[in-house]
Each structure stands twice: as structure tokens, then as C-alpha cells.
Design goal:
The chain has a domain of about 210 residues: Rossmann fold. It is of the alpha/beta class. The longest helix is centred in the middle third of the chain and has 18 residues. The protein has an 8-stranded mixed sheet, sandwiched between helices. A 4-stranded antiparallel sheet has the order 2-1-4-5, with helices on one face. Bound molecules: adenosine-5'-triphosphate and magnesium ion.
Length: about 325
């Protein structure tokens, strides 16, 4: 199937206080129409930066982004507006995402105006999107302001606002991490239903493999700005190839979205990146490290149809 979203060799280097931060290095990915792709990895591994580049909220230092056959890497003006209508971001924090002074109706009307949707369609679109996120009857919610809603209800409004322009792709960056565990599954189910009925493609970003497993067919594992493994979620979780993926999987003994877990069963943290960037960046935390790992950076190689890993281990499978 032709990809809806395709990125090749995405790169982002930040210059921060005289230091270079290689936040994303050589990330390529593709999302087909109707497919859900997950990006998982520890805090700071480059997930949000990748998502922001894909949505053109952050300029890539290098690489190319294609959407529906068109190169949108440098799109601007009306082309960028058209892209924004079709590729929508769901923010992590619903309390920050909505203007506290706006009624829900106004927050939903803004994108309709921005994307020049005829006024005659507004009321129908608003009602239909409120049904989709299960805030019904719409009239009982639309004149409220954000402080009158719970976190879970607010996140439903944020989803409604993302869906109202009729996008083909939703990018959800930690969509439930700020919410009480009791309402998480409800939000994910709204997203899943929207996907099923509208044929939406989705990119989910999370540090939580349990969430990714719940919603994504395909998964990418990132470590320090690079992809270390990718493949169909079920296989990646049942037979993780990269030692880092194994650690992520081991940290999710019972994969349930309602649970909170902390800590990985490997030493160190992302901030302990090896000082010498040649070789494998995971080597100082890796339980299977070999001499070769210090000198030779592993590149992504195919180990089975649709499955790739960046690791020198022969038995990485
Ligand atoms: N504007 C910026 N300026 C400088 N460094 C940045 C900037 N934004 C991100 N970074 C750095 O880039 C790296 C990747 O950050 P990013 O926010 O993409 O990680 P993340 O995987 O989304 O983490 P989290 O799970 O905590 O949200 C981090 O080292 C971060 O400090
Ligand atoms: Mg992030």
C-alpha cells in the first residue's frame, strides 16, 4: 500500500548552551492509511522531536517528509495550512491545550475557521465530532469552559478539535499520560473507534509499551535519537530482538494500560550516553555488550519480513 506519511533520514540537532544535542538521527518511517504506528522509548530519546518534525512544527536539520505523495518538507503558506488540516496533533496535556477563556464551542469553531470550512457546515461538524468523542448531548457541553470539565472530558474535547477538520492522520504524543488511570482506556477507545470508522492513520508516541501494544500494529523503538528496532508490535513484543527492547518488554510483565510502572531492568539511564559517539550508543547499558560495539555503530538490518534491528548480536531474534 502507498504510504500516507513517509519520512526519510530525519535529523534534528539542537544547539543549546554551546553544546550540540543530536535529538534525532537518521529516522525513517512510514505510516499507511488506516494504520497505527507506535514510537516508544525512554524520556529524552527523541519521540516528541520526531513528531514535531513530522507535523512541521520543528524544522528538520536534514531529511525529507512526504504526505500523500507530496513533498511537504518545505511546504509553506496554503500548502502548509492544507497539510495541517489533514495531519493533526493531540497534545499530551489537555489542561494546556485549550484556551481557558474560550467555551468549548469556540475552541471547536476556531479550526473550522482556520481551515476555511463553510459556516453552514459548522453546527453539523461540531455535533458529529462531539458524538464521536462521546460528549453527548453536545449542547450540554458546548457553552462550558475548560475549568468546568475533568481531565478526561477535556482530552475528549482536544480529540474532537483534532478530528473536526477531517484529518487523515492523527499524531498523539503521550495522549493519556497526564490523565488518571481510570479514564485512559476510554480515551484510547475513542481514538481507536475514530480510526476504525474514519480510516484514520495514527502515530502514537509513548514511553509506555503497554499503551503501544493496546493500539498499534507497528512499532518503532527509539534510543538516544535513533531507531534501534522496528516491526509488527505483536512480534516485537513476543520476540524482542534488541537488548533495549527486551528491557522495555521485561518492564511490562502484565501489559495493561491501567497500570503504572517505573524503572527498566537495565542499569543506567539515557543521560549516561557513551562519551564517544562512535559505536553503539546503548553499549554502556547493554547486558550483551561485545568489544565490537565500542567501535562499530550497528545499522538497521532486516531480520525477518518487516522487522529491523540495529544490533551486532547474531542471535538478535
Ligand atoms: N528546543 C530544544 N532545544 C534543545 N534541546 C532540545 C530541545 N527540544 C528537545 N531537546 C532535547 O532533545 C532530546 C529529545 O527530546 P524529546 O523531547 O524529543 O524527547 P522525548 O522522547 O519526547 O522525551 P519525553 O518522553 O520526556 O517526552 C532531549 O535530549 C532534549 O533535551
Ligand atoms: Mg516527549
Amino acid at each position: 500500500m502507498t504510504a500516507l506519511l513517509q519520512a526519510e533520514g530525519l535529523q534534528k540537532t539542537f544547539h543549546s548552551r554551546g553544546r550540540e544535542v543530536h535529538a534525532v538521527q537518521n529516522v525513517s518511517l512510514s505510516v499507511s492509511p488506516g494504520e497505527a504506528l507506535g514510537i516508544v522509548g525512554e524520556s529524552g530519546c527523541g519521540k516528541t522531536t520526531t513528531a514535531r518534525m513530522l507535523l512541521r512544527l520543528e524544522e528538520p536539520s536534514a531529511g525529507r517528509i512526504m504526505f500523500d505523495g507530496a513533498d511537504i518538507t518545505n511546504a509553506h503558506g496554503r500548502h502548509l495550512i492544507a497539510y495541517r488540516a489533514r495531519a493533526q496533533l493531540v497534545f499530551q496535556n489537555p489542561f494546556d491545550a485549550l484556551n481557558p477563556r474560550f467555551t468549548i464551542r469556540r475552541s471547536l469553531t476556531e479550526p473550522l475557521r482556520n481551515f476555511a470550512i463553510p459556516v453552514s457546515e459548522h453546527q453539523d461538524r461540531i455535533e458529529s465530532v462531539m458524538r464521536r468523542v462521546r460528549l453527548v448531548p453536545a449542547e450540554s457541553w458546548l457553552d462550558r469552559r475548560p475549568h468546568e470539565l475533568s481531565g478526561g472530558q477535556l482530552q475528549r474535547v482536544v480529540l474532537a478539535r483534532a478530528l473536526i477538520s477531517g484529518p487523515s492522520l492523527i499524531v498523539a504524543d503521550e495522549p493519556v499520560s497526564m490523565l488518571d488511570v481510570s479514564v485512559r482506556a476510554g480515551i484510547l477507545n475513542v481514538l481507536r473507534d475514530a480510526r476504525d470508522s474514519l480510516g484514520l492513520a495514527a502515530l502514537y508516541i509513548s514511553h509506555d509499551l503497554a499503551l503501544i501494544r493496546y493500539v498499534c500494529e507497528q512499532t518503532i523503538v527509539m534510543y538516544l535519537g535513533r531507531i534501534v528496532e522496528q516491526g509488527p508490535t505483536a512480534e516485537l513484543i513476543s520476540r524482542p530482538a534488541h537488548p533495549y527492547t527486551r528491557a522495555l518488554v521485561a518492564a511490562v510483565p502484565v501489559a495493561r494500560v491501567e497500570q503504572n510502572r517505573e524503572g527498566l531492568p537495565i542499569r543506567g539511564s539515557l543521560s549516561d550516553a557513551p562519551p564517544d559517539p562512535s559505536g553503539c550508543l546503548f553499549r554502556n547499558r547493554c547486558p550483551s555488550v561485545m568489544p565490537r560495539c565500542a567501535t562499530e555503530a550497528p545499522t538497521l538490518r532486516t531480520i525477518a519480513p518487516g522487522r529491523m534491528v540495529a544490533c551486532h548480536l547474531e542471535g538478535a531474534m
